[in-house]
Amino acid sequence: MELETIIGLEVHAQMNTKTKMFCACDNDAWGKAPNTTVCPVCMGHPGTLPVPNKAVIEKAVRSSKALKCTVNRHSHFDRKNYFYPDLPAGYQISQYKFPLASHGSVKFSITDPKTNLSEPSECRIHRLHIENDAGKLTHTAGSSLCDYNRAGTPLMEIVTEPDLRSAKAASAFVEELRRILINAGSSEADMFKGMMRFDASISLRPKGDTKLYPRVEIKNLNSFKSLEKALNYQERVLTKLWQEGKAPTGEVTVGWIDDEERTQMLRDKESAADYRYFPEPDIPPLELSDAFIASVTSAMEKLPSEMKEEYTAAGLTQAEATMLVDSEGLRTRFDTVKIVLGDAKRASSIVLTQMPGFLTKHSKALDDAPSAEALRELAEAMKSGKISTNAGKDVLEKMVSTGKSAATIIKDEGMGQVADDATLTKIITEALAANPKAVQNYKEGKTAAIGAIVGAVMKQTKGQADAAKVNALLLKLIV
Fold this sequence. Notes:
alpha+beta; single chain; Arc Repressor Mutant, subunit A; 16 strands; 3-stranded antiparallel β-sheet; 9-stranded mixed β-sheet
């Protein structure tokens, strides 16, 4: 029997607001001493009242639009009731039947690592809702320690439709989703800091069947690699069960043990009824006007997939386009240089090849690289003919190593390009006289011989001669 893999995801992304979701506590708990960014509200003390953070709503709306979702004009919060030591109130403030947004889609590409060819794909978004995060448990020998710094952190939960058909597709989807959320300015999505986590549901069915069979949910995956490994492992487990005639009859929840690269049974899958949802009594429903939504989303940038299409259409490779989409620092510098030079490939050579190479050579990070404006000055010097392309490379390295501007380096090093006809004619005439054999070979039809004369001119001018003008004058003088 040929089986088809069915995968759906729930993605939790921490939002990058200054304060928490329902109180004024610092939302950046990373590296802070345990239980120091808390207050009675996020600790769930009786009698406290949550107040929604406007920035949370704004960023969630931006993300919803970036995911092509419909932002619901009416939504409200619900209490999701469950007991866990790191959930101080005994319930989570989430959204159930009336989420902030619904019915979106994400276009992404699945790249074959062997051929480097990409296949376009798309995954529908079922809903996006907002909720507060729980704290963090640290398990030690014989005890568990609770840190509530993260309690109350605003989260977006993004739920997909079961549209993904492989672990590779799931990984490619969440990578694109991460780009979108960062580009929308709503999340840093720093995987190392746990700002983006995944719950993956997987099931199998006979090829051609349209029925959805009981699924296995894999909880709390925190990297693209663990997501892919966990899904591949669980797919093998389910395939064996189907082949033995033991297809699952009920839904279960498992955890992923990263060190052992296997899943472990946790419990039967909970349903909505287990959480006893009811409307949050302390927060009025959200009513979002068209004017509010427009004001929040009017200045949004292009989607990462749209930017990638533009870069590849300009002649860049998929890998180069991905580098630019994934790094705002590189993208800003590249766009600036490309505008000046009018050539995407030349801009790519400067920003994506030469500059990173020099940064590595001099043990510097991208934050230490010449700014977009500094690179604009360099590109303008090259475009105007003030310096040659080769000299421009030398100037760039000195900009990286010293932090000086292009203009300062060109002046101090005497690197201005030799471009006036009189000076070049004199140097070329001397080179012709010094290389009679190359002249004779050229006249006999060996056109490559002219390279020796050009090389002599470039050596005499220390690489500062205008190469195009040298070639033009040389062809006139050699006859």
